[in-house]
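hi! just following up on the protien thing from before. the input was this:
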Amino acid sequence: MRRVDWRGLESFNELSERQAISTLYECCSSSIWALRVARARPFADEEALLEYADLILAELTDADLDEALSGHPRIGDRPDNPSSQREQSGVSGADPAVLTELKDLNKAYDDKFGHVYLVFANGRPADELLAILKERIRNDADTERRVLRMELAKINRSRLIRMLAPAGQFADEKAG
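and the predicted 3d structure came back as:
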């Protein structure tokens, strides 16, 4: 689908349902999350959107959550979308030993929990993300599921705020 040029809550509220779902799916790769948030429009203000998005995320089934996780590359792998690339920018150029350990622990995490290690990276350096991974890999499955849901909520909020921001507000946005 061709990207629609728009910004702001008013414009978001005016998108067709299909456009809104597509746009929301770029924020979170859960079909049901994108559909339910899109169908709840119009939102009175940005906080209402963020709170509703959090509510829907909290209600996702494990299968829906797994679908959302599938849209996130491993920390340290080459990001396959602009949002992940921006969020993982602190990992690029990291010490090769840190990247190797991150890759190895990512694999161990995957093996233990059956899904990608998800963290609100937000430009944090690789050594910090590695330290967080070392702590989280000690979690039991239920605890880790709660933690990753909270991390996904932070990522979704950040992406929604960026989505609603006026064009050009963020210095790293490409014109086009």
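The two ends are 16 Å apart (CA to CA).
The CA atoms of residues 7 and 16 lie 14 Å apart.
cheers
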